[in-house]
Amino acid sequence: MSVLTSEWLKIRSIRSTSLIIGLSLSAVLLGFGLAVMAAGMYDSAPVDRRPSARISDLEEVVVIVPQLCMGILGTLAMTSEYVTGLIRTSLTIVPRRWPLLGAKAAVVVAAALVIGPTVVFGTYFLSRWVLGDRFSGAYTVAFLDRLPVLATVSLTVPVFALLGLGLGALLRSTPAAISITVGLVYVIPIIIGNIPEPWSERLGSLMIAALPRQITGDGNANSVYGSLLPPVAAAAVLVAYAALPLLVAAWLLRRRDV
Amino acid sequence: MVRRARGPPSRILYGVIELQHLTKRYGGTLAVDDLSFKVEPGHVTGFLGPNGAGKSTTMRLILGLDAPTSGRALVNGRAYTSLRRPMREVGALLDASAVHGGRSAYNHLLSLALTNDIGAARVAEVLAQVGLAGVARKRVGGFSLGMKQRLGIASALLGDPGVLMFDEPVNGLDPDGVRWIRDLMRSLAAEGRTVLLSSHLMSEMALTAERILIVGRGRLIAEATVAELTSRYPSLEDAYMALTAGSVQYGAAR
Amino acid sequence: MKAAVSSEWLKLRSVASTYHTLGTAALTVLLGVGWTLYVSALADERGSLRAAAPEQGFLPLVQISLAVLGVLAVTSEYATGTIRPSLAAVPRRGTLLLAKAGIVGLTTFTAATTILLLTYSVSRLLASGHNLGFNTTPLADDLPSLLASSLSATALALVGLGLGTAIRSTAGGIVSVVALLFVLPGIANYLPSPWNTRVATLLLPNIVPQIVGARLSSRLGDGFLPPWAALAVLCAYPVIALAVGYVLLKRRDA
Ligand SMILES: Nc1ncnc2c1ncn2[C@@H]1O[C@H](COP(=O)(O)OP(=O)(O)OP(=O)(O)O)[C@@H](O)[C@H]1O
Ligand SMILES: [Mg+2]
């Protein structure tokens, strides 16, 4: 318990934590802005074109901001200790290495579990309020029908936090861990979009952004992502993204010199 | 004019550091407060003061790393930042840990040397001088505290400068290294160089320095020769304790 | 200036992260081989096929890897503290930044051009005899696009250097280039038209198609910039980022 408190203090005192959290939360404003612009466009469109107007799910557009930010927070929670040499002190105070990693994981997940849902649901409700009954589809559907997707999408944020933490502990380098996180979220999906079928769909089903809608069984129509996985498998893949780097890191942390 | 003792006099070594009402404020902290003094060549000048007195800040201001809030710091009558090849006039060791752990000692020094048109031969020379020739190609990340300290001293010596500043260079050195530093400082001064040395080790300072500057809370408290101080007080340490009694900010509660 | 440039060149050569970032960018060649073999096999099955050219499909990998190289060229100095010795050796801060920019610019331009040309030639060699859509035009027609692509990677590396100087943090520097390269374009896609195209036309990933007169994407259609204006916007990115970095570097304490 005291390890948790200590990690919580450390995370809070990383110079950039408040900036990262602020940036994450600003995604709600971004979603709000996009909704306002979309509403304006809808209202200025000729009446006969309105029924065919479509809008993307804005919370899924803006969620990449908290995803990336929490991934970085997870990475910094680990790598900032290596940069400053504080890790040696930390491991002298908490010599058992797994509790240290576990406490860091608990703290970043806790932060991400607040921020993820705040951004996703905040964007959803704001957009719903701004858009009213404009656009058929996303925001005119009953909230309860959308709840499963919204909930799983917000769960991807803690997954990123753990992924960032695991990569940070594994690689012990801020640029390397952040670059791989960025590669997973941005670079690989662009490349997959260019691959011809059937591999585009196969690999596209494994991307983090493709998983929430496979878990809820909604499918990923109109995107570069595939939907070949049954819900249970998709959930397993999502868990693997968070757990695999962390487990390898935990194993290494025990075996490596600090 | 004092010239270099051995070899042909490559150039004049006479140098001087001069502070004129130097003041530096960080937000609410007055780190250096209207400091004026002159550091002259030919002897080691000890720079003393309690933790947080402003010694390191003063050195950063002299090197133009931080900008003074008011006043100025001059080296050989000019602002450091206006020197064309500054390492040939001033050498400084501020923080020995400021090295990229992935680079070799040789590459670290060479990257600094190149900026001031100093050749690779001189890099090898200073590495040998500080006793690191054997590990010149090793990653600095694997160096011990004392080895890093020696590397920092090597970087100060690179340009064979007339003015040298060392911020706590004896930290982490073995007894052999401590004596080596003492002899090095004294011989650098004997060659006619200006040497400003900060340290908290009073006994070492008494053996190394001839003149002493004591600062506290950013202000100059005393400027005297070691001989004057030790004639008035039992030892340099007693002199220091008495003079800084009112200026200690981070002392243990008694 | 020449001295500062050769020092920066040594600094870049003597750290492992340079080779990691260049190696990651160079993965493009291997990925291009795999890509070409895969689509060639598909073309054999299906007769013919329209695939994206590998040097275009994998361009984001080259861009982001080299951008990270640019960021690290300066933020690693802040992370390790070597920025102080560096600035003590080269007190003119503009000179230091300009030397870094020269070396980062040359290195990344050479690397990007080599990698893209290699990817181009290897894939065209492997693809000969197949009709893959991307391998029907002669090299002379593709050269402008290849050149614009490597210019865009160079520009991004310099943006990374400028923003890294301004932010002084590796994480912050990488995030800001990621924002320019991926996040903003991703969000611009979702703006209601015509704002999506208006905004996207100015964003980095869409500059290359506009320089060679291609459309941005099926969703965004044609950009608004004529080739010369697109080239000017591409140059404006690093110029603005480096100017911001310079002003802050000049004004702040090191
Ligand atoms: N970059 C900075 N930002 C804010 N405050 C600073 C900064 N650098 C120094 N200070 C403050 O200025 C004062 C003088 O610090 P300085 O490091 O110069 O002391 P010092 O005499 O070198 O101490 P020590 O003997 O412990 O090395 C301290 O109160 C310190 O907190
Ligand atoms: Mg100090």
From TrEMBL, chain A:
The lineage of its organism: Bacteria, Bacillati, Actinomycetota, Actinomycetes, Streptosporangiales. It comes from Nonomuraea phyllanthi. This is ABC transporter permease.
TrEMBL record, chain C:
One of its GO terms (molecular function) is ABC-type transporter activity. It comes from the Bacteria. One of its GO terms (cellular component) is plasma membrane. PANTHER family: INTEGRAL MEMBRANE PROTEIN-RELATED, MEMBRANE PROTEIN. This is ABC transporter permease subunit.
